[in-house]
């Protein structure tokens, strides 16, 4: 019989809790100096913040070097292949594994360095605050009290909100009104299976090419990419908060073919719609038991 691994820093640990957090102190040739390799990712999210040294993230032939203060967000199903950069003597990083609340989806839509791996680097004046929040999450996550995990989740929510606040504070120019109107139009027409960029461009009085350029310039993503993110986010919300049949959820976000909807949803989230809903229901049952 295989022995359960109780140390989250070592391979084989089962991440079954709603939130697990810690600090991984990797030093060259030390016991933790190996690469994490999870080609299928995990069921939950992992938030990673480099404390000192450098780490290297690999994803299907692409690489990213993370340095002190960098924060990375690995969503469910994202490739995990990372470790100490070979030219750095150490890589200390704080991390939080978590299963999000249903209403967090907007806060977890981070710009990607590649694939779905999100990236955020706070401005220097905010670095100390994010470091403190991370440490509070870790401390709460290691607590043994009845409400330790709930406190850690609450602190994580604060961190995500602080990031949103920092982003709005650092935004040098407001979003172009035509891009904002285009986003609203797309959101209002998610159920339209005959969507095309030309109709959005016409609505905001731009050519399709100009709209596409503005979208990439201001949001860092294509029109179709942004729409797909919104469709999947709305589908996740409907699956986690309603009992609508899966086919109806798909139609609500513009997928007439249920099989195609399931295929796209799984590609984006790492789980089929039915698996995602079952996971949400299990999470809600577990939370109800925790409150008894």
What ranges have pLDDT less than 50 throughout 5 or more consecutive residues? 1-7, 287-292
Distance between the termini: 33 Å
Tell me how many strands there are. Answer: 10
Q: Tell me, what's the shape?
A: globular
Rg (CA only): 20 Å
Strand portion, in percent? 15-25%
Largest sheet: 6 strands, antiparallel
Number of domains: 2
**Overall average pLDDT:** 86
* Amount of helix: 40-55%
Oligomeric grouping of the chains: single chain
Kindly report the CATH topology of the largest domain.
Jelly Rolls
SSE sequence, one letter per element: EEEEEEEEEEHHHHHHHHH
Explain what this protein looks like in three dimensions:
- It is built from 9 helices and 10 strands.
- It has helices spanning 124-141, 148-170, 177-188, 197-203, 208-219, 223-241, 246-252, 258-269, 273-290, and strands at residues 19-27, 36-38, 45-53, 55-59, 62-66, 71-74, 80-84, 90-98, 112-114, 117-120.
- Helix 1 packs antiparallel against helix 2 (148-170), helix 4 packs across helix 5 and helix 6 packs across helix 9 (273-290).
- The chain is globular.
- Residues 1-7 and 287-292 have low confidence and may be disordered.
How would you sum up this structure in a few lines?
The chain is α+β, with helices and mostly antiparallel strands.
Highlighted features:
292 residues, alpha+beta, Jelly Rolls, six-stranded antiparallel sheet, 44% helix, disordered C terminus, transcription regulation, HTH_AraC-typ_CS, Arabinose operon regulatory protein, DNA-binding transcription factor activity
